[in-house]
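Try it yourself: sequence plus protoporphyrin IX containing FE, in.
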Amino acid sequence: MKYRSQKVAYWFFALSMLLLSLQLVYGFIMGFAHMGYDGLHSVVAFNTARAVHTNLLVVWLLSGFMGAAYYIIPEEAENELASVKLAYAQLISLAVVGVIAIVGYHFNYWEGRKFLEIPRPLDYLVVVNVLTFLGIILVTLFKGKKRTTTALVLTMGLVFAALLYLPGMIWFDNQAIDSFFRWWVVHLWVEGVWELIMGGILSFLLIKITGVDREVIEKWLYVIVGLTFISGILGTGHHYYYIGVGKIWIIVGGIFSALEPLAFLGMALFAIAMYRKGEKKHPNKIALSWTLGTAIVSFVGAGLLGLAHTIPQVNMYTHGTLVTAMHGHLAFWGAYAMIVLAIISYAMPNLTGRKLYDTTTGLYAFWLSNIGMLGMTVAFGVAGVAQVYLERKVGLEFGDVQKEIQVHFLILVSCATMFTTGICMYIYEFVKHGRPSDEALVTQ
Ligand code: HEM
Ligand code: HEM
Ligand SMILES: [Fe+2]
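Structure, out:
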């Protein structure tokens, strides 16, 4: 750690770990419900568990991104954070809004829009929170000595992500129009601006870990940003196939969304090329595994498994089934969960001064969570294909089909147990690093 104020990042990472653990609890509740064991139904019904599971995911990822920015921006801009006190206030308010939202969901205080369930009054608090965060980051960056491409791409991603939250806050009486704009948030986040956040963090990690020249790494970053925007913006059309908008979206969405994997392929090739070119001397092998891992798994989960159901002729059958959940899991895991775990693995030894670089637990955490998540993806995929066939080809009722596919959730829950063991090991390592310390300032 080079700047004292970077320590703020630790607390965002800690919040992230806490919310990730809770997310998994709700995942298991749903996994068991799918198997036919829905004992908690009267307390946590499936729809509540689902909203809590997905919203916790978004909040722990955002907390991870914010921690990443608080760690990266001072180092890139060569400046202490503009206000550490405000950053802590922002952390607390993020946690408070998150807790109110999650508790509220258990009492039906929500909007039933998938991923955007947070009720409107709380949205305003989110806006204040995010504006505070962006204020700190922008002042730190623009008052700093340097404005690197890496820092600018990361900041651009964060600013656009905040702006794109707004279309989700407009009130529409018409559900179809509401759905149209919901995708401006959900799709343009994960298949647009979050990719810039991922690209920025990835570039920072590759510069630090591989030792390859910044100029080379940042040139790739431009290519990735270009590919993301060319394909991702009009790619939104893959959510507009049969929702009541113009037929033109079938062609536009089909073509441009089929190009989206290129940005993820670019990231995978980029990371591998930089690793091969680099010196391979950096001792933090765990951070290296997560960094290369995120680039490769995101290509599989988002790129390939996205492509698997993005063509209109396929999506007509698979839409809204467990095929979507298959892709949703590996895409979110590979691209955004793994990049957060990568930056945490890189930052923790620097923040705390404890160099737990190459521990067996850390390595097991990586492999168990990844193999577990791959297994879960396969289980969702098999259940999904069976569901599509029985429900949409044979014509069985939704509930009857769900009974037929219960057996696949036995596999899902087994793989999820392996995954969770990996995550527990990761969190154990996190805790073992201890708190950030000023003494770590001299260790770099
Ligand atoms: C890291 C990037 C990505 C993430 C995190 C992600 C995640 C998700 C999630 C969670 C959904 C369900 C959304 C909802 O129903 O509200 C979804 C839907 C979808 N995604 Fe992705 N995705 C990513 C990239 C991609 C890419 C690159 C493609 C295409 C090549 C793609 C194709 C699709 C399609 C076609 C759907 C609609 C499925 C349906 O009709 O039910 N995704 N994605
Ligand atoms: C213990 C591990 C986990 C289990 C057992 C689990 C299980 C589930 C289940 C059963 C669903 C509902 C599927 C349905 O609608 O029928 C779901 C939804 C979802 N989960 Fe998980 N999950 C776990 C971990 C994760 C992780 C780590 C992530 C992200 C990195 C994630 C992302 C999602 C997403 C994005 C959805 C919504 C998918 C969609 O829109 O179709 N889950 N999960
Ligand atoms: Fe999309």
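One thing you can check immediately is this: The chain has 15 helices and no strands.
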